[in-house]
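3.2 Worked example (two chains)
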Amino acid sequence: MPALGKDGLKEMFGLEGRVAIVTGGAGLLGREFVKALRDAGAKVAVFDIQTKYPQEFEKVLLGKNVAVYKTDVTDKKSIQRALKAISKKWGTPQILVNAAAIDIPPKYSKKGNLFETYPEESLEKIMDVNVKGTFLCSQTIGAAMAKGKGGSIINISSVYGEVSPDQRIYVRKKEKGTFIKPISYCMSKGAIHSITKYLATYWAKKNVRVNTVTFGGVFSDQDKEFVKNYSSRVPMGRMARRDEYNGAILFLASDASSYMTGANLVIDGGYTTW
């Protein structure tokens, strides 16, 4: 480990010459991770099924050291094609951020996602992207890392993989229907921890580190009632800004976390301490 000091810190946290992949890189947090990794010196590939991006992110994609590959994380062949392309362009990746995921936004109805009547197809859709997608990307890209010089896999989880949702957060005084945060998202994020622990031990001798980052809620122009309800459950009294998780990503991607694997780094403003 390099000595501390300006140059030492740059070497410890810097990512110069490394190749990173961010799945779901066009998403709300994925975009932040792409910019943070690029600014730290990495060459970053965006693996995302989306083809339309916010205007401010278009500028990032047109810049140096960022490449975009339309990729379906639930399709192994799609992942393999994208990996082959990025490996030919820049070399074997050393960083994988599994950020691709889907959630169910609040929609008020009579059933309101009740567990007793929750549809199988909704469960399958969430598990397919959030769990199978993480599995396939780790299997395909992680295997390439293990055959090479190693690397760091960073899996993204949620406080709802740690604790059950407080359904009171989603109550709306003016809504006639009901919304219950469904079990599918919670199941999928709970599974991420198991994937991380399994792979951390499986690839430990291959210099592939695997860790989870568990995030709290991120402010994204939600309605005032939800923000108030959620923030009341957080000791710090607010939701996270979308850029507040970048430091954790850089830490886990860099040599600063060289002796860290199989861990779950919880960053939630204290939400899970109550």
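3.2.1 Second chain
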Amino acid sequence: MFHGFGQGQQLDGDPAEQGLTALVEAAERAVEKIGSTVPPAQLRALLIIDRAGNLNLNRLAALVGASASATSRLCDRMEVAGLLTRDRAVSSRREIVLLLTESGRRLAAWVRDQRRDALAELLQAMSPEGREALVRGLGELAARPT
């Protein structure tokens, strides 16, 4: 059970961690169909870029928690796979933005659909009250600034 947390307070997160594990495992199973053709790091970057519409390399690096050089290599592999392109920003000819290709957008949509279906299945197994609380809590997490 969660005990209010803040400065100096304890958080007993075992049930929360178990619930998170169930959500993560369902999300992972949902996209296993693509196998090893798209590594998890590329999928994560793909979904971040899709959500943002376009990003520059430094912003993507910050969001994935990697160095700019590692993120550049990741984007190189995604570009070779036909998932993204690099283009000059309209506002600054010196800035390079990352844009998903049509194939990249389709893959991101497919992954999100698979995850939604997996989440819906988990939610169906919950009580209406638990489902409402989880959906509200996840909505709050999603609304946090990145």
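3.3 Remarks
Strands lie at 55-56, 84-88, 96-100.
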